[in-house]
Amino acid sequence: DTAVSQTPKYLVTQMGNDKSIKCEQNLGHDTMYWYKQDSKKFLKIMFSYNNKELIINETVPNRFSPKSPDKAHLNLHINSLELGDSAVYFCASSQGEAMGPLHFGNGTRLTVT
Amino acid sequence: SQQGEEDPQALSIQEGENATMNCSYKTSINNLQWYRQNSGRGLVHLILIRSNEREKHSGRLRVTLDTSKKSSSLLITASRAADTASYFCATALIQGAQKLVFGQGTRLTINP
Lengths: 113, 112
Known about the structure:
Chain A is mainly β. Chain A has no helices and 11 strands. By secondary structure, chain B is mainly β.
């Protein structure tokens, strides 16, 4: 009964490939996010969606394209992967008041070789 | 430097002792939140304190907020080995895009 689940947990791929990460939440939340955590543990927001609409796009390269087919799902597609994309990507969701508590998935560790 | 910065970056104490972590930020906030991250896992929300609140408690956790100094502290009392984790503060900004801005965290190690 994981509240926010993302797949896969690990992703190892070569430079230039295209990959996707999927996220689903069963909390009934309206807002979903993608965060990137680098090797120094710094966590930075990439995107947020509210009821399937993009509301935050934090100067992320165009190679990253989020897609929200419904408010329970937010997927992340990455084209032409680069070494610098290696990181842990977290999906999160929240409900109600803006900037309330976030519920995080367990992350997808992406390694680009 | 970042909006939220935790101090210290790493803290190692004996089980049973109290642990205090600090967070400083730069711009006005709507609220400030603390999260815990165990190794290989996602962040877990611990406590939210609003800009008009000064102190909040939750079990063994005590959070203070000083908006005049733009700082917050998280106190964990009677620490346990299971408290070993990274702790992050996150600030909800008043101006600009509505988002949480995280610091780099404090790595807390509780030695048995």
